[in-house]
């Protein structure tokens, strides 16, 4: 998968490298994301920008940590041949202030939380949805934990359960 990354309103850091590492880890646990034909865009931006996107596209006038806008249906993604023209998987965006607040509240590094949200957003683009059922949420959380473990990042759900 090829990722186009835009960064605006985030502190200095190697966010692009983090995003590429998170995408590689996501593709390890969800192999459909490793299709070389896939293109995705990832925006690291501000709460104000994500609030506008959330309001305009979801009717929720508040910021959130990550939004995903898939452009392929899951069956089309899963059956996408590796050869052929590029296919747009979708767009994802992360809000800096919300991510930073959440990371501070969990006492984890912003980089680790951002990696988690990149993986989370990419899994949404691949058709995973934690809001459908408890079983879907458990499956998505398990994939996220496995991807983060590949990056040397602790399971964010174990930390929540232990609290």
From TrEMBL:
InterPro entries: MetalPrtase_cat_dom_sf_prd, YbeY, YbeY_CS. It comes from Aurantiacibacter arachoides. Single strand-specific metallo-endoribonuclease involved in late-stage 70S ribosome quality control and in maturation of the 3' terminus of the 16S rRNA. GO terms for cellular component: cytoplasm. Its EC number is 3.1.-.-. Gene3D superfamilies: Metalloproteases ('zincins'), catalytic domain (3.40.390.30). GO terms for molecular function: metalloendopeptidase activity; RNA endonuclease activity; zinc ion binding. This is Endoribonuclease YbeY. It holds the Pfam family YbeY. Its main location: cytoplasm.
């Amino acid at each position: 998968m090829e990722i186009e990354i835009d960064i605006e309103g985030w502190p200095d850091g190697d966010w692009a490298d983090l995003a590429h590492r998170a995408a590689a880890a996501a593709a390890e646990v969800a192999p459909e994301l490793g299709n070389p034909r896939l293109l995705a865009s990832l925006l690291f931006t501000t709460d104000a920008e994500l609030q506008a996107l959330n309001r305009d596209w979801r009717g929720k006038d508040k910021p959130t940590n990550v939004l995903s806008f898939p452009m392929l249906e899951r069956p089309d993604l899963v059956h996408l041949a590796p050869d052929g023209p590029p296919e747009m998987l979708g767009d994802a965006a992360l809000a800096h202030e919300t991510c930073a607040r959440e990371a501070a509240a969990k006492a984890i590094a912003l980089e680790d939380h951002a990696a988690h949200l990149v993986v989370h957003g990419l899994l949404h683009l691949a058709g995973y949805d934690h809001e459908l059922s408890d079983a879907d949420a458990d499956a998505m959380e398990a994939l996220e934990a496995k991807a983060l473990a590949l990056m040397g990042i602790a399971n964010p759900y174990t930390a929540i359960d232990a609290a």
